[in-house]
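tool_call predict_complex ligand=biotin
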Amino acid sequence: MIRRIHYAIIDSTNSEARRLSENGLDEPLLVTATEQFAGRGRHGRAWHSPRGGAWMSLAWPVRKPPIAYAAIALPAAVGVHRGLRDVVSYAADFRIKWPNDLLVSDQKVGGVLCEQLISGSRADALVIGVGINVDFDLAELPSDLRHPATTLRAAFGKNYDVEKVIEAVSERLAEVIADFEAHGLTSSLVKEVQDNLAYLGKVRSITIGGETIAGRVAGIDDAGRLLLDTSKGRIACETGEFAAAHEAADRNRM
Ligand code: BTN
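tool_result ok
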């Protein structure tokens, strides 16, 4: 059982998990909130976090050199994917949009923000922040989100208990992170991402360092890089923002 601290409202569970980890962590710690007033997404974006969402951050004591966690985005995505299927159904078609957005019917239902606190001391920690849109009115979200969003309620037409989502997702997340910490990015983990990858065989674009490249999604490689077949051959992307090719020109980042 992971130790947990819950807030009715907080700026960001990731920020709070970082503050709580500053003096070192002896064991994993789960920070959750009913609402966040300054929720953070990837690439410095805001993450809208009304009541009815599962807003959680798993602070994880680092036991290996930071490089061992470089591919953390993928095990994090797998943990969230497993947890969502536990709650909703094993038949539900959740897809992982590389590196770690969770989609259902091409709409974003969850996102992950991984942060590493490196101080060179025992205070080193990982913070894996997960946001799942569970059961709130979609009108509570801004209309100009980069990727169309949904909630579990809207996608599956029934009410879901936020607490059950937190329990399932945090448990699965801890399970996969522990496995990844012990064994690295194993072929079975890579396969689980590949089997559930969004846009396989479709043309998408990626923006890396300001440059946007379009290509057909070919999967991920052993190191967890996204493989794109472009007009200049196959490229492996370690990082970058992955978008619909036609969106690249105007909305060019995700
Ligand atoms: C993304 O898709 O951009 C990542 C979104 C991550 C949001 C979660 S909600 C809980 C945790 N606290 C935050 O401030 N962010 C993460």
